[in-house]
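Job type: complex structure
Entries:
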Amino acid sequence: MDTHAEHDISLRINGSPHRISVDVRTTLLDLLRERIGLTGTKKGCDHGLCGACTVTLDGERILSCLTLAVSVDGAAVTTIEGLAAGEDLDPLQRAFLDHDAFQCGYCTPGQISSAHAMLREHSRGDLSAASFDGDQRRVRDGCPPLTEGEIRERMAGNICRCGAYSNIVDAISAAGAATER
Amino acid sequence: MHNGHMADGTRQIGLGITRVEGRDKVTGRARYTADTAFDDLAYAALVQSKIPHGTVTAASMRDSSTRAAAAPGVLHVLTPLNCPVLQRLPTDLTFDLPLERRPPLSDLTVQHVGQHMALVVADSPENATYAASLFTQSYEPLPPQLSAEEVLADPEPPDDKNGEIRHGSYLPDHFVKLDEEKLQDHRGPLTEPDLLARVSATYTTPLNAHYPIELSATIAEWHDERLTIHDATRWLTGERAVLAAYLGLPESAVRVLSPLVGGAFGSKSFLWMHVVLCAVAAREIGRPVKLVMTRNQMFSSTGHRPRTRQHVRLVADDDGALASIEHHTVTETSTVAHFCEPAGLSSRFLYHSPRLVVSHRVARINAPTPCFMRGPGEAPGLFALESAVDELAVELGIDPLALRIRNHASLDQTNGKPWAGKHLLDCYEVGAQRFGWDNRPLAPRSLSAGGIHRGWGMATATYPGRRMPAACSVTTSIDGSVRFASATHEIGTGVRTAMGQIAADASGLSPSQLTFDSGDSLFPDAPYSGASQTTATVGSAVFAAASQWATRLVALLSTDEQSPFGGRRRDEIDLVGGEVVSRGHRRAIADVIADGGQRYLDELSFTVSVDGGDQRDTVSQSFGAHFCEVEVDEEIGRAAVTRWVAVMDCGRVINPALARNQVMGGITFGVGMALLEQVPYDTRTAQMIGEYYVPTHADRPDFDITFIDEPDYALDPIGVRGIGEIGACGVAAAVANAIFHATGRRIRDLPITVEQLMNPED
């Protein structure tokens, strides 16, 4: 058993409440993987570079390898395992399948979790560096169209060494169009 | 051809079907080594050396070990002082493969930064990491040799430890165990012809790392005297052999499992020193031990592509017909393993030339052991050769594509044999047309606008068609489901899906009735998943197994008096899309199997082995053409690859969706090699002092990928030649050639970075 289980924290993970004692040094990533058994979220670098560990915390995408579990006591976490509704895939998951948006699949949970939050960021009007490449009216009026360039820029923190980038963008584009109001 | 009277509507080969493990991958259910759940798991952390050459003092090792052992939660500390002796690996393995001659933790000497010096095992990852951080090693440093230049300039020190540690440099005869891949070769006149059109240039490529997103992970567990290793490996059978050798066990006592691998690109095999240490620790404490490498450790402990320095000399007549090709490579390996990056191999055959000289010299330096990385030889070698050919075109004032066509080789000059199916001219033609190459102005800096310089470059791609022996089992169940299995590895190539397509077509089963399993060394043997050989190799075994399955079922039915098909001639009974069809009578295969009972199941469950094929009369080689556009902004030193056309002649394409994804991935890999990637080692201390940059979403071009899709039945009965690596070959040269066309600057050292692009030519 752990000899450093020092802090009791509460987390709502994929809708389920968890009350756990954690070592203060434990990252949210290691907590999910090693303690809770949610191994869908992956460790790719453990220092915030690759994006494979992306989950959403209170609706926003974060790098779980750089997040100490004790620092997010009380938060709601959604992992890749929490996106599908039972056997019904989320539109992003469906699109990744249909567009072959992965090869080895190891970065995929991070890509999908990141894209999920990114689509939300975009629909509420968040801009990116790519937003300033085009027509200024689109920036001024808020919510620029989700072009391929926008998707690439907003997803540039999720590395795919297999290089499935083109299909990933196609999948996100298709899913984004499908969920647009 | 093969057993098939199948209607086109049921044929699986050629369809872009979804990956069989796809749903698992998008839902987080897909299981990789580190995801495997265990009761009672202990966690390990590595301690590595911080100097490149010398010794760790026994006193500091002892003190550190004691300190770590006393830290919270620590279960065991394994060091050279207490590690049970591991056997040296057999010479027939280490002689020409990058397997280290010296077992891990065998002494206190240090041969490179990042060498394993201890393994700490604790009850949590945090406790293991903390305890490992308590190690303070005192060193007695020795002068390191950190580059080929140093090695070649200095006298060669003698071998140590009975030849486990070697110095100096050597001239390897051939590449791995392939006698015909000559690394020292000379064909034609002794001296170089004295013609005017010539190129003589030196090209360098830096250290490259595979950087798979999945960190190497191992879990070792013992039951009695039997070891089970869960490892992110792409060579189950090789790892079994090496672990058994290290531990002095029979191979039957070792099982290796690798459910899915999160990318390999040439890594995750050969360098299993950390794996055997986990096994030793697990035996000591009687609990399963899990190690996940850190990203930094991946650079020093799982292999890499070593540096090359390549000198290329081309001589041609005024019309551009090559009269001589010379390609001389100096590269590096560690002091404890053999490896030669075979950069010059493609130059032996790619273009027609009456004279050819190729050489490779390997310097043993105080650096980690390198190993194969995507396109070993081809990737750095084609950068040099295809840049040199481009330089020759500039020298002659000829279009670079026209020059290559002029020197097109119609047979393999290394052995005089014809290619089994070479469609390189089609690749050039289709690619040029799709790219718009005809509109390319010859002079550099001709496509500039608004301060951005656009350039168009191209290069030839090539990669061998390889095949090795493999075996495949078939197991039929009473519900009519059929499982094919082989000890191969799903590393992202889609092998499980492609094998299913091959099996379906060869057997007549519907895809939903069959599965292909991999990832267990208990399955029939297969070689490493590398050398782009898996589809040809395992595919041949699957094809044989599935064909034989169909033959056996037809024989059973034909002779089964209880069956509605009993008494019919075998050539009247077809298996198509999951049904038995004969003279208009149809019945589901699942039903006839259920009817047949155990007798059928026994006859329809077996294992087949196939050899590596026989390429006596022809050579199977894949070819391709890359065309790209690069935009260079010299004010900020940025090169952006905007669009890419690639046409590949890789034999038959089993699944066009998977194939396209592979080639796009390979090109992206090559763009990284061209513009971003170098392992940033400090030249004085040999420590890593920065980050390794790989392409992101923002860095890749728009793709236009075409396959010639002409089967090559000389290599295997399915006609495939493999596509995993060719996409990455020639890419760096195409980019460098485009950059020359954009800017007029010829850059011969990779990666091409800000510093090299920012200074405009005066």
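Summary: Chain A is about 35% helix and 15% strand. The longest strand of chain A covers residues 7-13.
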